[in-house]
Amino acid sequence: MSSPAIPQTHSAHADPDHIRDRLPFLRRRGLMTRGIRAFLEARGHIEVETPYAVPAPGEEVHLHPFHTVRETPQGEQENLFLHTSPEFAMKRIVAATGLPVFQFARVWRNGEQSALHAPEFTMLEWYHPGIGLDGLMDEAEALIRAVLPPRLEHIGPGLDQTLDIQFPFERLTMEEAFRHHAGVDLLPTEGDAAALAQAADCTLRAGENWEDLFFRLLLERVEPAIGRTRPTFLTHWPASQAALARRDPTDPRVALRFELYAAGVELANAFEELTDAEEQRRRFQADRTARKALYPTRPDWPMDESLLDALPHMPPCSGIALGFDRLVMLSCGARRIQDVLWLSR
């Protein structure tokens, strides 16, 4: 579907005609919300709500949270942040109950603004105890089929073709993706930027480390080649990109993580969840050290000890964060995330 013409001469958040122009997209948004809720509840998931203003907003190095201050009736002050994801809180609920849960959560990421990014947006997250990465891919694929048309006409950068939802989604390991689309044997180079640059036949930029070059090649060579005619799960990321994921017990060089791509857009990020609190603490500390080195003037926060206390009680579980606004964009052919928001800044 193509996007209806949207006036550019009025403020998107003040002009009532602008909202009326976008009503087809916004009605679709409501239908998809109800469809997803029905799908997950039919599979036994319970909808939850977690606090948005929290003491620890997350540990991802490059995400910048909004900062606020809570004042108590006694006049005391507490630093709080608008969370960048409800992940930590939802894991605590899974640890306490052992139940599958989901949430349509408003999340905030400072400094983000583009056709695909907004500083405030909706994240659909769900956690399913008892299933691994393959089972979560099956569930995510079934959910997307349940709420999207079987075929979508989409237009991306230099691209005009059909995205088929009814066919099995592609499942491609990161190692396979780099070999096929970047001509690189990726895993033997991990941690060695010069080796990766040589394997990729490219010049290492000043100050560029292995992780920087890995993401440059992912962006420039791999992502443009996947998820074009059918959605693609990009799985088994290098261990250094494990974040909150378990390492693969059959190959510790990789983490049990996938991202989902469709029509040139990253839709979701998922993990087979790490439940080892000591390992998680080490990873958090490494992320905190890197964040302080890169962004020394940004505010800091305490480590989330409540999450670390809960992890040993969490059953084997997989979880996924899906950009709901992007899924709506894909469904109705919208070109900008602002087109599927009732009001935007």
TrEMBL record:
Keywords: Aminoacyl-tRNA synthetase, ATP-binding, Ligase, Nucleotide-binding. InterPro entries: Aa-tRNA-synt_II, aa-tRNA-synth_II, aa-tRNA-synth_II/BPL/LPL, EpmA, Lys-tRNA-synth_II_C. One of its GO terms (biological process) is lysyl-tRNA aminoacylation. GO terms for molecular function: ATP binding; lysine-tRNA ligase activity; tRNA binding. It comes from the Bacteria. Gene3D superfamilies: Bira Bifunctional Protein, Domain 2. Signal peptide: none annotated. Residues 32-330 form the Aminoacyl-transfer RNA synthetases class-II family profile domain. GO terms for cellular component: cytosol. PANTHER family: ELONGATION FACTOR P--(R)-BETA-LYSINE LIGASE, LYSYL-TRNA SYNTHETASE. NCBIfam families: genX, PRK09350.1. This is Lysyl-tRNA synthetase.
